Amino acid sequence: MEGRTSLLLPGRPEKGVLGPGSKGRETVFYNPAMAGSRTRSVLLLRHAIEAGFLGEGEIYALDGLTASGLRARRWLNELPAEMASRIKATIVDLNEEALGWARASHEAFPPHHGKGEISAVRGDLRTEVLSSGRHWVDIDPYGSPVPFIDSAMQSLARSSVLEVSATDTAALTGSSKNPLLRRYGARVRTDCLSHDSGLRVLLATVAKAAARHDRSIRPLVSIWDSHHLRVSVRVQKSVKSANDLQSELGWRVFSPAEEEVRESIAAGLHHDSTCEFLPMHCMLPLSSKVDRSDSRISGPLWVSATGDSSAMRSMTEEAAMDYCGPEDISDALDWKPRELELERRRVARSVRNLAEEGSVIGTYHHIVVDDLASWLGTGAPPSPSKMVQILRDAGHRAGMAHYGNPSFRTDAPWEEVVEAAGSLQPPM
Ligand SMILES: C[S@@+](CC[C@H](N)C(=O)[O-])C[C@H]1O[C@@H](n2cnc3c(N)ncnc32)[C@H](O)[C@@H]1O
């Protein structure tokens, strides 16, 4: 069982042995490390339905590289009957054996309210996705999603959602420079923000594909979770907004010079500043004359917000527990109370800080406290929650981030960030 949904597998998924280890073999791929991603997918679908951007009628949803079928099965089983009854889900995989397990799971454990439809298709996602229009498409491949993005984009309804996972994290975060340049046409500086930069490179890639097909994107949630990066975006058909793409793309500069910070301010990508203290990073517009061989530069990448405030604020731990937390022991097969409790904690952990981060997702600074300590030449990194509290007390917006490295976001001027960090240093 994952979340509230049971599935059949050829063996118990201890330590993920049926996960990445089974790649390429004729068996079903199930990776428990991706459970959080599936939980967030259920919650985001609920938000999109409630916010009304999937229309009022049937919702055509595609779980594009489905493997065990669990993602689509969780959509149906964990959403309330009135939402699930609108969903017509298609699960696609090249692997017939995987689809066999998915079908068997669906028969053994159908949605508890009996609502919603799933049909299984064996084939290549790039062909199947074009067979009809979709409101929701999920791409969760081995490695890079690049081969699937263009065809998925073309299949999307006028207002829809695309979710894209990438496990070629070494490329997206700048450790493997050649694949990064080849697949995404970008470079990324390897520092504590490299996963954030990787998410922004992925968003830029999806946005460029959208623009090629007269569409534009709005990021809903962008997440770094253990070995993968994942972006979920709202896609709308609009030639006018597709033309605005260039203003959403640009560069991230580490250790910017004063004139770079001034250029960032002039472009509306940084708060006004005396430049007495220069920040660790700033963004520059795409039109900026950057030296691509400069090791301080990452990009081209998405320079606007990487998430949508209301979508992220809907992903509270309470909502995760209400919709996805296992609670009925009779559904839980042979699970012991302790195992149920651990699964509840995993469900809560999958959205930790997301709602809080949603209220500050549009702010200019994303600060990893380890980086801040080295930047300021102080000793131990300051506590991110204490930094948030001090900055809020001073009247600024600040919040913890859902990010692999302890970090926070704020709109406080850099001068005040430096002062707050200084106030947390023990006296000499
Ligand atoms: C990483 S797994 C998907 C995991 C799944 N989404 C989940 O949440 O558990 C990738 C799956 O894509 C399938 N696959 C690979 N290339 C494909 C293609 N071109 N079309 C359809 N399925 C494909 C593989 O057989 C594999 O089951």
Secondary-structure topology with pairs:
Blueprint: H1 35-51, E1 59-63, H2 70-78, H3 81-84, E2 87-93, H4 96-108, E3 117-122, H5 125-128, E4 134-139, H6 146-155, E5 156-166, H7 169-172, H8 177-184, H9 194-212, E6 215-225, E7 228-237, H10 239-243, E8 249-254, H11 258-266, E9 281-285, E10 297-302, H12 309-313, H13 317-324, H14 337-349, H15 354-358, E11 365-368, H16 369-376, H17 384-393, E12 398-400, E13 407-410, H18 414-423
Parallel strand pairs: 1-2, 1-4, 2-3, 4-5
Antiparallel strand pairs: 5-7, 6-7, 8-9, 8-10, 11-13, 12-13
Helix pairs in contact: 1-2, 1-13, 6-9, 13-14
The structure holds S-adenosylmethionine.
S-adenosylmethionine (SAM) binds next to α2 and β2.
What does it look like?
The protein is of the alpha/beta class. Helices cover 38% and strands 20% of the residues. It contains 18 helices and 13 strands. A hairpin with a 2-residue loop joins strand 6 and strand 7 (228-237). The protein is globular, with a radius of gyration of 22 Å. It binds S-adenosylmethionine (SAM).
List the main descriptive attributes of the protein structure presented here.
binds S-adenosylmethionine, 428 residues, Phenylalanyl-tRNA Synthetase, Chain B, domain 1, globular, single chain, 3-stranded antiparallel beta sheet, 38% helix, alpha/beta
